[in-house]
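Internal QA ticket QA-208
Title: Verify multi-chain structure generation after dependency bump
Assignee: T.L.

Test input:
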Amino acid sequence: MTHETLDAAEAPLPAEAIDAIERAATSAHRAAHPHEALFSARAANIKQSAVRDVFDISLRPGLVSLAGGSPYLQSLPLERLAATAADIIAKDGLTALQYGGGQGTEELRAQICEVMAAEGILDALPQNVVITAGSQSAQDVATKVFCNPGDVVLVEDPTYVGALNTFEAYQVEVATVEMDDDGLVPELLEARIAALQTAGKNIKLLYTIPNFNNPSGITLGAERRQQIVDICRKANIIVLEDNPYGLLRYQGQPLEPLRAANPADVIYLGSFSKIFAPGLRIGWALVPDHLQRRYYLASESVTLCPPAFNQMLVSAYLRDYDWKGQIETYRGIYAERCAAMLAALEKHMPAGTAWTSPEGGFFVWVTLPEGVDTYPLLKQAIDAGVVFIPGAAFTPSDEPSNKLRLAFSAVPPEAIDEGVRRLAGVLRENLAAL
Amino acid sequence: MTHETLDAAEAPLPAEAIDAIERAATSAHRAAHPHEALFSARAANIKQSAVRDVFDISLRPGLVSLAGGSPYLQSLPLERLAATAADIIAKDGLTALQYGGGQGTEELRAQICEVMAAEGILDALPQNVVITAGSQSAQDVATKVFCNPGDVVLVEDPTYVGALNTFEAYQVEVATVEMDDDGLVPELLEARIAALQTAGKNIKLLYTIPNFNNPSGITLGAERRQQIVDICRKANIIVLEDNPYGLLRYQGQPLEPLRAANPADVIYLGSFSKIFAPGLRIGWALVPDHLQRRYYLASESVTLCPPAFNQMLVSAYLRDYDWKGQIETYRGIYAERCAAMLAALEKHMPAGTAWTSPEGGFFVWVTLPEGVDTYPLLKQAIDAGVVFIPGAAFTPSDEPSNKLRLAFSAVPPEAIDEGVRRLAGVLRENLAAL
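Actual output:
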């Protein structure tokens, strides 16, 4: 559920890309056209994400990108997938290339229930699964169905930049809840809810990435999981559990999703982007029975139906391939890269910096001393040949952030070391100047 | 851009499907859950389309479905497409299965400009094309960017049911403008705008399907096209031109899209669903330069990026296949089916009924005598072995409609004749009872 672009054909020159970042940071200037008066109130809230721009820069030759959380697809059996794709079109092309049902195919929805069973959700029914154009779209639909302008969505601080973009597009007020090393702090969540309710706010959703949070890599502790759901249930807040990385745990014990024991309280978002491949844009929502109809209709009103061919390819993959073995392979790759990053941080980073140690997923979250703003450091880092995402991207606040996100998923171990070395040089220089 | 499902795996029993239609026609009843209080105001506006239910029924064996506007894909070169798909994944799988740019690939956007050139739009630039998850999604984004709740969108009466669903999901006020045999009547459009402006309404968009309108089959006359744009420009209303069928003209002279001579005034929506295949869900918007950025960002916030593989397959198809020849083939098929339908109507329909004669596209629009409501006739028609879509689906009004839509695109000529014969029997019975 990260939103990385690696479209080489579109890579602008670095100077242009840097300009683009600056444009995004300030408001856009444009000659007035009478149509300007026609934009919806929400359109003003839809901003260019700084993250997006950085991905184009990431293509600069010689540059190490620790920005993009793209999965590493080299281990996929491409030749075999090619044959499967051909088979689907040759034998079943009239279905694969035709309109399909708005909720997704029955076959894939049943298989998705098996994927979720591997996570610990054992009671999911295909009829409560809605297949969407990537998990981002599932999140968009959830916001559409529940949030009026001015309603509140609670999020972890930090949280996924794409989720923030979606919420802001619906003019939702995003309220953050602090995390510690075990994720969301229940007492702080409770206090935040109480304060918002006292202020007369309508809180609709708690959006959480409990496993290997993007961007922090932090995992919500086992003992807190039920507590969080109970707090939300009591306050009549729906939990929107976003779990694209859950199966990519390479350390520690698997934890049950919040949805597992709480079928009526949680909308669970899943994705094939990290456990198979993002380019097919197939995600899903598992929706409580009493919310399924509204959710499904809203999804259908946006895209009519998810692409039939893509669903059939995922179905064939889950049916005929060792998809769990592929996840093992992914786990091995990411475990190695995570270890390389942690070792590089240990080796290169200056005193006064700290970072998280994820048990899975794609990201490490680095904290610099108070008072440092990582946003202006990005330009220096690019000049030094490394890219990261400044922490400010992952919070609704406009305040400067002394955090930054490093992604190791798409980068070989030796390049990770070199990238961190370059970054550390930039940081050392700036920390010395403090 | 119709929203037909032919997912055989999901076909309910006819009795259940008929129940579903009735459920859709009345409001849904459900045991109250505290979450009911959480729905957004817009969620209440997102309704089950009667059309959707009918498609499931259409699968009943022996039944002739004149309901679904699915394209007829049997003439596609499936074996060759299978090989192309395999080639893309085998040789370029790391791109095809990875995240891509939010606007779509540069290659496909350039090719889309060539497709639009075949329609008469000669000045389109790839940078102003935004590729979307089907044209439905492009329309959703346009509404998102321009419409606040309570804003007005003008539409032809009748218009595409999927567009109505989208507008209603944004709590837009949909105002209809009457058509005659030459489409939208400029004088009536002007009067409607004046009346709405006098009432203090904010009119944002005119949504129009100028070629072979869905559902009516009516085409906007050549001499009216510039008039319509001029009227909208004067009133600062953006024209949202939806043209999925434009290249499927099998009679009469091609007409320039409204966009052709009016690059700053029209957002043009195109689709590969009718000229290639709908199952890939690839559509696009050609957006005026001054609106591109906002439109693109809103699109990205919904789905991150369109599926890379699907875009690459469409690109290969446009690059390596005789796509114009395939359109010729489609034209031939639909011309024959349209002729079969018109002949069947001539042969079977009772006195007092009238219908349109489309020059392209998929649909014929039938008008029964005043006072007849086609909605309750649907059940009788299903019992007689034929399905159509009642006219009420294609207008925002809750009034009964004496119209119905017949689609000939997916049905062989002999079945068209039999379907119309069955329908005529039902109508004759009901007209006699008047």
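Spot checks passed. Chain B has two domains: 8-75+325-432, 79-320.
Status: verified.
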